[in-house]
């Protein structure tokens, strides 16, 4: 039985000035209640991670830090994207915490699910995934694409928790082991299952965004999904090889067909079929080269070994 662990709640923020005060209000109430119920230590805190915001987000975080004892923050030197900002927060928080919960700033994640997460942690679970109980509030397109993504990831052999985003509890020892993962191309929801240790899930109903705009429009969502696929599976490369064999067999059939047409004196009539075949195979070749190029590009980024995040300011050290 773990007794009163120090909890840090890591919250990545990018241009969240419209919602951060309400987020602070709700998280403050939750932290005070958890402390009063002796579920966490009074040294616990919420750590906002400013991901190079262009508005007054960081200014508000510093004001909150001065007024509220349970709130602190770090600021990245520039915008690095949600996954890098979250990683920066996790790696910083593990220095001070026994257990860390990560969540978004938009209040869509149900903060009351923290109670069940901490309960499972006290029972010996090192990772607890927050999983959406349903997607009824999503549009048909978003629901269809999201569910399709998880099915594709499973088909490609990626160990990914279905309907889980980045709302999760992780113990200190998980984060210490996670620090050994040096990937530059981050897909955290696929990386944490690789760490191992005992895990469990907590189901919750996802809410509407409290204020502001989503930081994940369709283009970013598609890029994120593609990064997840190409960072965790080489099956697309195998599909190219399989496709090559299929085209080889088809080309043999076309060759036999062409010889028969030639011998019967009907070569001109096959022009349409031949031109379509050339364009089709050419298109497949370009797609295949593009997929191979994507993997080569990722290897290029990995070999440079540039830092995934740079913290310019840490309020916890002031």
Terminus-to-terminus distance: 33 Å
Number of E strands: 8
H/I helix tally:
10
The portion of residues forming beta strands comes to 5-15%
Order of helices and strands: EHEHEHEHEHEHHEHHHE
CATH fourth-tier homologous superfamily: Spore Coat Polysaccharide Biosynthesis Protein SpsA, Chain A
Number of domains: 1
CATH class: Alpha Beta
CATH architecture: Alpha-Beta Complex
Query: Low-confidence parts, pLDDT < 50 over ≥5 residues?
Result: none
- The overall pLDDT, averaged over residues, is 77
Specify the biggest β-sheet: 8 strands, mixed
The helix content is: 40-55%
Q: Any idea of the CATH topology? A: Spore Coat Polysaccharide Biosynthesis Protein SpsA, Chain A
Strand order in the largest sheet: 7-5-6-4-1-2-3-8
Q: What gross morphology would you assign?
A: elongated
Q: For the CA atoms, what is the radius of gyration?
A: 25 Å
- Helix-strand makeup class: alpha/beta
